[in-house]
Amino acid sequence: MIEQSFIESGFSFTVSKLLPYIIVIIMGILLVFILSNRMKFMNRFLRIFLKLIILVSPFAIYFGFNPIYQGDFSNNSEKVKRTEATSEIEGEKLYVLAMANCPHCKDAMAKMLLLKKRNPNLEIEYVVCHSDAAALKFYTEVDGGEINVRLAKNPEAISLLAQHKFPTFVLSQNVGSLKRWSNDSFGVRALDEVETLFN
């Protein structure tokens, strides 16, 4: 995947997401420029129509395979006061609040593993709102020991912190409020913000 190669090359998450779209737009412009001489003798309206098709096609094809979803570029965090009930969320760490057998929470693991690979100093921890340790296997079979996965000490309080929406991402630093993102608001700009804080 083109986006993945840019990420692995050290570009930010936002730039890596944007660059492939910019490249396919430039490809469309170049194709129109290269083929315009061959269309000289065509009807003017047909020529304009074909140029538009050629211009838009690379972008449309790439977008068809890699659509932009709502939230992909978002960074809509909110500050949350620390409470006694959520005291297990502490230190300098990015927490992923999850529930048992949550496919979206499991999908987020790939993003967290990539974030961890790019930022070895960043500590990431999955907190699963459940009382049975067997629920952890759903996540530990994916992470390969790179990310700590544990049960919530107070599942009800952690569920409330997540507003019963999973996964929820919570950034804890040694001082100040917690910063919370829902799954839909934790886009590439949010990933870049987390990286900036831990670099």
Number of strands: 6
User: What's the mean pLDDT score?
Assistant: 93
* Strand-residue proportion: 15-25%
CATH architecture of the largest domain: 3-Layer(aba) Sandwich
Low-confidence stretches: none
Topology order in helix (H) and strand (E) letters = HHHEEHEHEHEEH
Overall CATH class of the largest domain: Alpha Beta
* CATH fourth-tier homologous superfamily of the largest domain: Glutaredoxin
Reported by name, the CATH topology of the largest domain is Glutaredoxin
Shape: elongated
Class inferred from helices and paired strands: alpha/beta
Structure description:
The chain is built from seven helices and six strands. The protein is α/β, with parallel strands linked by helices and 199 residues long. It folds into two domains: 2-65, no CATH class; 78-198, Glutaredoxin. The protein has a six-stranded mixed beta sheet with strand order 1-6-5-2-3-4. α4 (103-118) links the parallel β2 and β3. α1 (2-8) crosses α2 (13-35), α2 (13-35) packs antiparallel against α3 and α4 (103-118) runs parallel beside α5. The longest helix is centred in the N-terminal third of the chain and has 23 residues, at 13-35. The mean pLDDT is 93.
